[in-house]
């Protein structure tokens, strides 16, 4: 009878084993969640050109509508996850006034760790750029570039639901009609501006 083990002696071992299983499963779940949680695309403005603000270019100075050329860079930072881009809309602001917009750029699919470059032509209203041109002379001008679009992620052969993205950036413009200072400007999220934009719409 002395050789029989007391059942209570095995309880600590059983509890320890259960605890180890819970810890391992919890850690595995966190790792899987991190691996399968997609990162938002990265949007960068690599160049801006406004011909009518270029003091060396007199061709566009008297046009009723003028053009704003934007070079945008879309980057997918995810590993093993593709991105479907859709409903890409660009809106330009000078101070609080909308000076132009470009709606529904062509949708496209982007593989993981890839970068896509877009050149966007936006027709702006000349009356708003008169004040803009005055600002250039005093080096105080700039545009607010707002981007809205919908993305879906392709993960392990499955496609996620739609995710709405809103990003914006302030772009200083010099007397040559191009970006002044930093040449690559990253668009970032702004919850307050997104709320204000939704109210205007």
Automatic annotation (TrEMBL):
Keyword field contains Cell membrane: no
Protein localization: Membrane
GO cellular component assignments: plasma membrane; plasmodesma
Ranges where the Late embryogenesis abundant protein LEA-2 subgroup domain occurs: 74-156
Ranges that cross the membrane: 16-36
Name of one Pfam family that matches: LEA_2
This protein's record includes keyword DNA damage: no
Membrane topology term: Single-pass membrane protein
Protein name: Late embryogenesis abundant protein LEA-2 subgroup domain-containing protein
Biological source species: Carpinus fangiana
């Amino acid at each position: 009878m002395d050789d029989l083990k007391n059942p209570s002696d095995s309880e600590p071992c059983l509890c320890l084993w259960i605890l180890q299983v819970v810890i391992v499963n919890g850690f595995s779940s966190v790792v899987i969640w991190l691996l399968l949680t997609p990162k938002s695309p990265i949007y960068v403005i690599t160049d801006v050109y406004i011909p009518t603000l270029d003091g060396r270019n007199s061709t566009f100075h008297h046009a009723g509508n003028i053009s704003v050329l934007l070079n945008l860079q879309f980057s997918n930072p995810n590993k093993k996850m593709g991105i479907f881009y859709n409903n890409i809309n660009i809106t330009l602001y000078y101070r609080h006034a909308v000076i132009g917009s470009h709606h529904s750029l062509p949708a496209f699919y982007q593989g993981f760790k890839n970068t896509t470059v877009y050149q966007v032509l936006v027709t702006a209203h000349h009356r708003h750029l008169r004040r803009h041109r005055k600002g250039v002379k005093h080096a105080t001008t700039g545009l607010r570039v707002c981007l809205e679009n919908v993305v879906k992620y392709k993960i392990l052969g499955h496609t996620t639901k739609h995710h709405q993205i809103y990003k914006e950036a302030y772009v200083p413009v010099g007397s040559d009609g191009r970006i002044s200072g930093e040449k690559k400007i990253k668009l970032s999220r702004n919850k307050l501006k997104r709320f204000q934009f939704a109210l205007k719409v």
